[in-house]
Specification:
heterotrimer, A alpha+beta (279), B alpha+beta (695), C alpha+beta (157), A: 279 residues, alpha+beta, Uridine Diphospho-n-acetylenolpyruvylglucosamine Reductase, domain 3, Enolase-like, domain 1, 2 domains, five-stranded antiparallel beta sheet, three-stranded parallel beta sheet, 12 helices, 32% helix, globular, C: 157 residues, Ubiquitin-like (UB roll), DNA polymerase, domain 1, five-stranded mixed beta sheet
Chain lengths: 279, 695, 157
């Protein structure tokens, strides 16, 4: 039988993980769907699991001068309600799930799940989120881009746990998240988009674009973005179609039960155009 | 006398709110066993061999060899086996059951069953016609010779899943030698009669009981008979109580859905821009069995003129068999497909002729005394003109329509007109159903309604009690309507076809009148049986005559905004006006109106289900998208009274009417918003983008 | 097996069970709380909604291991409260109940919403109900019921 281990503290969890591999379960809102079983039967996990949602060390939101840290198992709803949470992330959480999912689901879980349709990943890529990862013997930090390596693939060692998500505090002039789903709420995205820009004295000082659900991971290309830094707003806008063309090759969506690749591609680029238009 | 339309609290609301109402999966029996189904893994082929794992003590397999009666599910068309013997005709077709006390063990055994097939080439194209219908009105297609102009278009509609929130399920047990089944069903006697035939037993050896039902919408009309037959065979074999519950995914993969359709329309138009005639062909995809498909097709064909009078018709249709999951009953029953097509066609004809669609449609609107598509007569008053004015007034249709004609507008407003024939098509009530109802007065002065009508949310437990209470002049609390149990209630027919209040309620009202006259008697029972109004004559073979005893009428108006960046349709609001004869309870009718329209609008723009090589791509509630509270905007409904002489207090059908007009109303609105023609539903953002790009 | 202790409808409970079970199954099978329904089993429909520490969660998506030391309230527990009476009355008066299968979940969603926001706008009500599917009503009468409860229950939340 598949075992379920319920640690009493983070150090208990890390010690146990050092000795035995477990699949980690946070809020369970996605894991339980993926390991769905017939009703009344135990969850259909394929390997032993460890339940980390209630570890107090993984809760909480701290605001520092330069950044905020979010406990990996802090429920999405609490992140939404916290005054220090960046607006872009709040907007995303509001769109990404129903209240019931927000109360149980966690940001760490959404990251580790590494779904191409994971909505929170899009703003997290945009904000250059760092993850703090702990094992019994060490603590390390990794950029979310390095952490997510493919469709549901992450660079997490079997003895590690994501403990914190660290976000820079940035005051964008404009930051937008758009989710395109099959209905207005409570649905998995067909695609999503996030854009952010900082303007000083009519000059673009920061310009960031990210797309979700249109490639194996979130599409973000700083080398494209930096071409437009220190351009004027007008120059940026004049370059709209050029920018669209630069992103075009990286938007490589698939056909599936929710949408098709033509739609995903065209609408992703439409949202980029709209974002530039409204700067 | 008080007005019966005045709303009361629903009989069952409090127990449902509290969670105390028992649905089938809430009922626990001692020693309950669990039945799980072994299903085919291919869409078409021959079963060469079935290898079972070694079954531990107390575990059983149940299959075709165990069927002691006839191995056919009794529906209308007897072409579905209870368990297949030699061939497989669709993916996930049930082959056999594994039954035992521990569900986890049963599941493990199911996974170990090996079936060897000889695969055959599956058919997914619509080429095998199992039923072909054809009828004419007037000069048929010969009128096309006189046409000044012929306009022709093709329309398509997709699957729709009923998506009742409670999945299908049964429990059953042996009571002496009587097989007793409790299930989530619409039609206790369909189930009972099917099980009698399957087991080859006497009528008194099968009992079917209805618990609370978590929605049905047609999905629990004929499908449960298949499950019930399988479960009954298992109960007969192992003589233990058994639970057979479908999880959502199994339910969505294997239960019946609304038939996808392809509808071809040609119109002959004369030099005054009046339609002389239609030539129409309707193809529907039955899936692997005919089942109810022929009846679905006929309702679709009969609705081919929409709410209009067209003097000459040539109408044909085919039921195609494919190696896909069988399709079946769904609220509207063939009419929603046709109303989408005919309403869009009328719009498209007008646009081709360069005439204002509203003016054009008004000129063709059916009136009292007109001939129906089957040469019957609209005998009762039709008050559509007045209703249309009302609908336009409450929605501010004219102003909005004019404003949204602006090429830069992303908004649109659409209006559909429709009727729904109440009750079974043709002579079904008189020849096939022969409904019986009973009222019993008991010594303590209570009156029991004994009918097989199922309350699946539509409120019949409340409304029938109101009818009886009002007629006998008793307080509502003195009228009892328990859940149907075939050991105690007569066969009043299935709970389908918008027939329950009009037909069953009509009979109950007649019984109540007699009971009132004899009320001084201490304890007695009154029984009534359906008699067709003598003027109704219909020939099922030729589609000639009065297809329905009465018609309910309606108008839906839907307003939308289509985002030019994402092509997503946002429904801003909807307005409806209905003639349902007389509302037996106004709030219940308004609730039906909201819910039916929600399903109808969503059918038009939101709900996507399709198969690829027989594999359904949307198989759970995550992927099959139905509206949430966020999606549909406010709804306003106005009811008109137009009593029908044979319905109780003049009531006609409600349930299906409220669905059938939703899709064309929303697609007309979208059409105006994007200035392109909608030819198929669902009108998804992907389709709208394609239209905007190329169309 | 694991020892799981939590508060259920106001009472402490303890059970020795497989931690890899869903809260939904524990409630229905071990405690016979069948007002908690399974509609989809994957967190989409909300028929299995319960309150966990006063907030709505889908019990089909919560492993029982995560419930340790939490307060769980099902419709059976909620129905013992004054707030329930106000909502029940409003649901009945506004015709918010048809087949009833989603209704206990809708009541839980309403309580979770009003507990946090005693005077929600129509849009906030819709967001509050957005994880609870109803196939019968088209939602309007449920929304009206919550608006009525807000009015009737003046100050209750």
């Amino acid at each position: 039988m598949v075992e379920g281990y319920i640690p009493t503290s983070l150090s208990d969890a890390l010690t146990e993980l050092a000795n035995h591999p477990y699949r980690l379960v946070a809020g369970g809102t996605d894991m339980l769907v993926q390991h769905h079983n017939l009703k009344t039967l135990p969850i259909n996990f394929k390997q032993d699991v460890m339940y980390i949602a209630n570890l107090s060390e993984l809760q909480g939101i701290q605001e520092e001068e330069e950044f905020i840290t979010i406990g990996a198992c802090e429920p999405l709803e609490s992140i939404l309600e916290h005054p220090a949470t960046p607006k872009l992330l709040k907007d995303t959480i509001l769109e990404m799930a129903s209240p019931a999912i927000r109360h149980a689901g966690t940001l760490g879980g959404n990251i580790a799940n590494a779904s191409p349709a994971g909505d929170s990943l899009v703003p997290l890529y945009l904000m250059n989120a760092m993850l703090e990862i702990q094992s019994k013997d060490r603590t390390r930090r990794v950029d979310i881009k390095e952490f997510i390596t493919g469709v549901r693939k992450i660079a997490l060692e079997p003895n590690e746990i994501i403990t914190k998500i660290i976000l820079d505090k940035i005051d964008f002039t404009k930051a937008t998240f758009r989710k395109v789903g099959p209905r207005r709420s409570d649905a998995i995205s067909k695609l999503s988009f996030a854009g952010a820009v900082t303007i000083q004295d009519n000059l673009v000082m920061d310009f960031r674009i990210a797309f979700g659900s249109v490639n194996i991971t979130v599409v973000r290309h700083p080398e494209i973005e930096c071409q437009f830094i220190t351009k004027t707003v007008q120059e940026l806008k004049q370059n709209k179609e050029h920018i669209v063309s630069l992103y075009r090759e990286y938007i490589r969506p698939i056909d599936d039960q929710r949408s098709n690749k033509e739609y995903r591609k065209q609408v992703s680029l439409n949202l980029l155009r709209q974002f530039i238009d409204t700067i | 006398m008080s007005d019966i339309s005045k709303s009361v609290r629903k009989t069952d609301a409090a127990e449902k709110i509290s969670g105390k109402a028992l649905y089938v999966d809430d009922i626990k029996l001692d020693h309950m066993h669990h039945a799980l189904t072994v299903r085919s893994s291919i869409p078409a082929g021959l079963i060469k061999n079935i290898v079972l794992p070694e079954l531990p003590d107390g575990y059983y397999s149940v299959g075709a060899d165990d069927v002691s009666g006839k191995n056919v599910v009794k529906i209308i068309f007897d072409d579905q086996p209870i368990f297949p013997t030699d061939k497989v005709t669709y993916l996930h077709e049930p082959i056999l059951l594994i039954v035992g006390p521990d569900k986890a063990k049963v599941k493990e055994l199911v996974d170990q069953v090996k079936i060897e097939y000889e695969e055959t080439k599956p058919v997914f194209d619509w080429v095998n016609s199992a039923i072909h219908y054809h009828f004419e009105k007037g000069d048929g297609n010969r009128v096309f010779r006189h046409a000044k102009k012929i306009i022709s278009y093709d329309y398509e509609t997709g699957y729709q899943e009923q998506a009742y929130i409670e999945p299908q399920g049964f429990i059953g047990y042996l009571d002496d030698d009587k097989v007793t089944l409790i299930g989530s069903i619409q039609c206790p006697y369909y189930v009972k009669n099917a099980v009698i035939q399957a087991l080859g037993v006497e009528e008194n050896q099968v009992r079917v009981i209805q618990p609370s039902i978590g929605g049905a919408f047609g999905g629990k009309e004929e499908f449960p008979s298949l499950m019930a037959c399988q479960l009954a065979v298992a109960i007969q074999k192992i003589k233990q109580p058994i639970s057979m519950m479908y999880d959502r995914e199994e339910d969505m993969l294997v239960t019946t859905k609304r038939h996808p359709s392809k509808i071809h329309f040609e119109a002959a138009v004369d030099k005054t821009n009046q339609i002389l005639g239609f030539q129409t062909h309707v193809g529907i995809d039955a899936g692997a069995n005919i089942g109810l498909s022929g009846v679905v097709l006929s309702r679709s064909l009969i609705a081919c003129t929409g709410a209009y009078t067209i003097p000459h018709l040539d109408v044909s249709g085919d039921v195609y068999l494919t190696n896909t999951v069988p399709n079946g009953a769904f609220r509207g029953f063939g009419a929603p497909q046709m109303y989408f097509a005919v309403e869009m066609f009328m719009e498209h004809i007008a646009k081709d002729l360069g005439i204002d669609p509203l003016t054009f449609r008004k000129r063709h609107l059916a009136k009292q005394g007109d001939k129906t598509s089957t040469n019957g007569t609209f005998r009762d008053p039709i008050i559509m003109e007045e209703m249309i004015e009302k609908a336009m007034e409450i929605s501010d249709y004219q102003t909005k329509y004019k404003e949204y004609q602006d090429p830069s507008s992303h908004k649109g407003i659409g209006m559909s007109w429709f009727f729904h024939g109440c009750g079974f098509t043709g002579s079904g009530e008189a020849n096939h159903i022969k409904a019986k109802v009973k009222l019993r007065k008991t010594k303590d002065g209570f009156v029991h309604i004994l009918v097989a009508a199922v309350d699946m949310g539509q409120g019949i437990r409340t409304t029938l009690r109101k009818v009886v209470a009002e007629i006998i002049e008793l307080p509502l609390e003195r009228i009892i309507f328990d859940f149907p149990d075939t050991d105690f209630v007569p066969d009043s027919g299935p709970t389908v076809a918008s027939r329950t209040m009009m037909i069953v309620g009509g009979l109950v009202a007649r019984a109540a009148k007699e009971m009132k006259e004899r009320f001084q008697e201490i304890e007695f029972t009154v029984q009534k049986q359906y008699e067709q109004p003598s003027y109704i004559k219909y020939d099922e073979a030729t589609f000639q005559g009065d297809a329905y005893p009465a018609y309910s009428w309606g108008i839906n108006i839907v307003e939308v905004d289509v985002d030019p960046v994402t092509y997503i349709t946002k429904v801003l609001g909807s307005w409806s006006v209905y003639d349902v004869g007389k509302a037996i309870d106004e709030r219940i009718v308004l609730g039906q109106a909201d819910g039916g329209l929600a399903q109808g609008i969503a059918y038009g723009y939101l709900e996507v289900m399709r198969h690829e090589n027989g594999v359904l791509k949307q198989k759970n509630m995550t992927d099959y998208i139905i509206p949430t509270a966020m999606d549909l905007g406010p709804m306003e409904t106005v009811l008109y009274e137009n009593p029908y002489a044979f319905g109780p207090y003049g009531a006609k059908g409600v349930g299906e009417l409220t669905l059938v007009g939703g899709a064309p109303a929303v697609t007309k609105a979208i059409e105006q918003a994007i200035k392109k023609r909608i030819m198929k539903i669902p009108a998804t953002p992907e389709y709208l983008m394609e239209l905007v790009n190329h169309g | 097996m694991a020892k799981i202790t939590f508060q259920l409808n106001g009472k402490p409970v303890q059970l020795d069970t497989n931690p890899n079970r869903r809260l939904l199954d524990v409630l229905r099978e071990d405690f016979s709380l069948t007002g908690v329904k399974e509609g989809c089993g994957e967190g989409e429909c909300g028929a299995c909604a319960v309150l966990m520490n006063h907030e709505i969660v889908n019990s089909c998506s919560v492993p029982i291991a995560n419930v340790i030391n939490k307060e769980i309230v099902t419709i059976e527990g909620f129905s013992q409260t004054h707030r329930y009476d106000i909502l029940r009355n409003a649901f009945e008066e506004e015709g918010a109940v048809q087949c009833g299968f989603c209704t206990p979940g809708m009541m839980i969603a309403s309580e979770s919403l009003l507990n946090k926001n005693a005077n929600p706008t129509e849009e906030e009500i819709k967001i509050g109900l957005s994880g609870n599917l109803c196939r019968c009503t088209g939602y309007n009468m449920i929304i009206k019921a919550i608006q009525r409860a807000v009015k009737d229950g003046d100050g209750t939340w």
